[in-house]
Amino acid sequence: MKKIVITLAFALSIMRVSAQKETKTVDNFNKWSVELNGGFNKVQRPFTSSNYYNARISPFTVDLGVRYMLNNKFGFKADFGYNSLTEQKNSSLPFDSKYYRADLQAVLNLGRIMNFETWTNTFGLLAHGGFGIAQLENKDYHVSDLVTNAIAGFTAQAKLTDRVVLTGDISTILNSHQDHTFDGAGLTENRGFSGLLFNGTVGLQVYLGKNTKHADWVVMSDNADIAALENKIAGLEEQIKKTPEKQIIVEKPVTNTLVSNKDVVKEMINDNYYGVYFDFNKATPIEASTSSIDVILSYLRKNPSASMDIVGHADQVGSSEYNDKLANLRATNIKTIFEKSGISSSRLNVVSEGADNSIQKDSEEARRLARRVTFRIK
Prior knowledge:
The chain is α+β, with helices and mostly antiparallel strands. The protein folds into two domains: 2-24 and 219-377, CATH 3.30.1330.60; 32-217, Porin (Beta Barrel), CATH 2.40.160. Helix content is 24%, strand content 39%. The chain has seven helices and 14 strands. The strands form three sheets. It has an eight-stranded antiparallel barrel with strand order 1-2-3-4-5-6-7-8. Strands 11-14-12-13 form a four-stranded mixed β-sheet. The chain has a two-stranded antiparallel ribbon with strand order 9-10. Helix 3 (220-242) crosses helix 5. The radius of gyration is 31 Å and the shape is elongated. Residues 1-26, 221-225 and 243-262 have low confidence and may be disordered.
């Protein structure tokens, strides 16, 4: 049997070819979103004198935004805000000012940059910052002050559905060229970045588009890698079809017995000679694993009555619950590749075995071998 395995492995290695590198991938996630938030504000400066100051928590802050993500980490948004600025009751001279603004901001998806997907698929974090213009108005003092501003902040996200996200945002706004104080009763002495106020809001983000997921929650490398593998498999299809079924002669003392290649391949697959391996915390296979996919794909095509378990594994780093999900996702992604290569989903069954507790957890090499998908032909 060992001689057969060695001979067959050598023969199958001839089937490995190199596909052209991927030149273009199609985004399969939504990029647009709208958001509506409301909350409070706190003005720090400037005021005419110590007799004027803002309420500790001043209500009536509203923000409306439209966001577009270039990918799952970077994007832009335009937002429009309204602040009602009033005095601290019984402690400040009364004033009633309005602050209207429009800003264009860059957005960083810190959730993807910091790999939040390793511990949660529900919570996210965005950072945003940019510049805009604003209008400060106070009818009592006939103030209409056009200013420029800089804004920066953080938005915490809690995903309710694939379309709706609950948010909480804290932003800092700096005004320049502000001629009047926020109370409207006096003039400023500094036309640089003298105005300072804070906004705290909660609200909802709604994702727009025909796809299931939004860029906020997509791991880009997974999509790119799957697309690359699909292109590679598509490029191999013609050669696989043209490859003749090989036969091996096993010598015995009296007679020669003909052994079918497909029976030996089945045994090799079930004995885990062919596995698909993954980088740490990734759900798409490494480039070197495509040859195993090619061999198994060829076997399934030549044996249309065969079905198969696709078994996902993970190393022991992380919680048991997370490793179960990661192992399942790895197996599901491999199933998707087979389905898109023409194998019926009814022949493919995903099994998650979670973390491989038989390996040495402290060994980096052992953990690398544990991050795999194996196969069982039935």
